[in-house]
Amino acid sequence: MSHKTANNPEPSASDTAKDVDQLMRKYDRESNTRIWEGKTGFIVRIIMVAFSVYCIWSTLWSVAALEKRLTIFLALIIVMGYLTYPASKHHVRVNYIPWYDFILMIAGAGAFIFYCVQYDTLVKILTSASKMTPLFTVVGIIGILCLMELCRRCVGVPILCVAGAILIYTFSTGIGLDRLLYTLFYTTGGVLSTPVQVCAKYIVVFIIFGAFLERTGIAAFFINLANSLVGSFSGGPAKVAVISSALCGMVSGSSVGNTVTTGSVTIPMMKKTGYKPEFAGAVEAAASTGGQIMPPIMGAAAFLMAEYMNVTYGFVAVRAILPAVLYFAGIFIAVHLEAKKLGLQGIPRADLPSFGKLLRRIYLLLPLVVLVVLVTTGTRTMQFSASIAILVTIIVSLFDKEDRITINKILEALEAGGKGTITVAVACSMAGIIAGCITATGLASKLISAVVSISSQVSFINPTLIALFLTMICCIILGMGVPTTANYCIMASTCAPILITIGVPKVAAHFFVFYFGIVADITPPVALAAYAGSAIAKSNPMKTGINATKLAIGAFIVPYIFCLNPAMLFIDTTPLKVVVIVVSSLIGIFGVAAAMNGYLCRKMHWLSRIVICIAGLMMMDPTVITDVVGFALFVVVVAIQYIGAKKQPQTA
C-alpha cells in the first residue's frame, strides 16, 4: 500500500502531462515542435484549422484538376511544416522562428503555388522534358529541396538517405536534370504520385477523424473497459495494457504516441502488481506498436495498401484480422504465463470500473461502427464515410456528460488533424520521388535480378525465404525512427514488386513489408517505442527492447507463414479451412509464446522449449501434415509439463 508523504507526494495531472510531453519530444520526432503562444499561437492554430477544413471540402466537393488540388495541398503542408518543425532542438523556443525558415517556407510553398496557378499554361508547354525552361527547372529544384529539408526535420534522415542514394544512381544512368525534374515535379509520376494522392484524398480525413475520436474520451473508455474485463485476472494490469493499447493504437496510428499516452497509466500499474520494469515497458511498447495492424482502422497505411493493391479498404481490413489476432494473442499469452510464473494477482474487483456503468457509454463506439459499415458496404466513398463519422463523433460526444465535446475541442481536433498530416504527407512525397526514380531507371527489374542471383547461389534454402529475409532486414533498417506510412510507401515501391515477381501473392507481399515496417519501432538498436516505454518504467532501454521483441515474436513469424501459405490471409480457402486455420494458429502462437517465456505449468527444460516452439511453428503453417505433427508434439510437451507440475507443485 502506498501513502502520500510530504517528501514523496503523488504527481499531479499537470506534472503527468508535462512528463508525457517531455517523453514525446525525446522519442517521437513528430512531437519535437515549435512552441507558439499568444497572438502568434492563435494565428498558427487558425492556419492548421483552416487546412483541415479545406482538406475535407477539397476531398468531398472540389472539381479542380488533380494537379491543382495536390499542389495547393503540398504548398499548405510546407507552410505548416516550417511553422511547426524547427531545424534543430536548439530552436525550440517560445514564439521563435529564424529568418531563413521564412525564406524556405515561402520559397517551397511558392514553387507549388506557381505550379497550381500556371497549371493550364504548363499543360500546353510541358509536353515533354525537352520543353523545360530555366524557370521551370529552378522552380522544380526549389520545390523538391524544400520538401527534402522539411522531411529531414519531421520524418528523419534514413528516408532522405534512401532518396539521395537513388537520385545519385538515377543521374549515374545518364538521365539528365531536366528529364528528372520533369518526371518528379511536373508529372504525377513523382512527388504527386499515388502516395500523395492517397494522402490528400483519404488519409488526411481519417487523421482528422482520429483526432476527433481522441477528444471524445474514447481512450479512457478503452482503458476502463479493458480494466473491467481482465483487470481482476492474474497479472491483470498487463492484460489491460494489451487490450487497451490494441484499441487505442488502431486510432492513434503512432507507436510512440500510444506507448506514452496509455503507458503513463498502465506501466505504473504493472510495476505495482509485481512485473519487472523491463517487462512492463516492453508489454506496453509491443501492444502499442501492434495497434497499427489492428483492424478496422490500422493507422493511415491501410488506405495506401488498398490503393497500391487496387482493392477495397474492406478487403485489406478483413485480411488483417487473423494476423492481428495472432499478434495480440501471443502478447496476451506471454503476459499471462509471466504472471503465473511470478505468482502475481490481479486488481481487486472493488477497485475496478463497473462494467454496467461502462455499457452506458458504449455509444462512444458508434462513430467506429458507422465508419466500418459505410466503408465495408461501399455505401459511400472512404473520404465521405470518414466525414460522416466525424459528424457522428461530434453528435455522440454531446450526450457524454463526463467528456462532452466543446467548440474549443472541435478546434483542437481540427488543429491536431492538420498537424498530424504534415509528416505523413512529407513522407508520401519522398516515397513518390523514390518510386519515380525507380520507374525512370528500371531499377526494380535490376533489384529482382540481384535477389534471384543471390538466391540461386544458396541452393539448399528456398529462394523465396532468402528474398523475404532480405526484405525484412530492409524494412527494419528503414523503419528505424521513420513513420510506418513512410516506411510502407518505400517498401511498397521497391521490395513488394520484387516479392510479387518471385511468386509471393500481391496481398501477402504488401502485408509482409507493412508488418516489418511496424516492428522496427520495437526492434533494437533503434526501438523508439520500447525506449519510450523504458523511460516511463525507469528500466534499461536495451533490455526493454529485447523483451518487446520477444513478446512480439508473432509479428516476426506470421508474415513468413502467410507469404509461403496465403491461406492465413483468407486467400483461396473455404470457411471450414478458415476455422481450422484460426484454431491451429492460436494453438501455435500459444506454443511459441510458452517457448519464449520458458514457463507453462512449471519452468520448462530447454529441450521442451525447443520442441514446443517447433510444434507451434508447425501449427501456424496452414497445412494438414504440419498441423497434425505440430499438435502431437504440443500435446506431448503439455502432458509432460502437467504431470511434472502435479508431482512437484509450485508455490507462489
The count of DSSP E runs of length 2 or more, i.e. the number of strands, is 0
Ends distance? 20 Å
Query: How much beta, percentage-wise?
Result: under 5%
Low-confidence stretches: 1-17
The H-and-E topology, N to C, reads as HHHHHHHHHHHHHHHHHHHHHHHHHHHHHH
Structural class: mainly alpha
Taking the sheet with the most strands, its summary is: none
What is the global morphology? globular
Would you spell out the secondary-structure blueprint of this structure?
Layout: H1 13-27, H2 38-61, H3 66-84, H4 99-117, H5 119-125, H6 134-154, H7 157-172, H8 177-185, H9 194-214, H10 218-230, H11 236-252, H12 255-273, H13 277-290, H14 301-309, H15 313-319, H16 321-342, H17 355-359, H18 366-377, H19 382-398, H20 407-441, H21 443-456, H22 463-478, H23 484-501, H24 506-518, H25 528-537, H26 541-551, H27 553-564, H28 575-597, H29 606-620, H30 624-647
Helix pairs in contact: 1-12, 1-25, 2-3, 2-9, 2-20, 3-4, 3-20, 4-6, 6-8, 6-20, 7-20, 9-14, 9-19, 9-20, 10-11, 11-12, 11-13, 11-16, 12-13, 12-25, 13-16, 13-25, 13-26, 14-15, 14-23, 16-27, 16-28, 18-19, 20-23, 21-22, 21-23, 22-23, 22-24, 23-24, 24-27, 25-26, 28-29, 28-30, 29-30
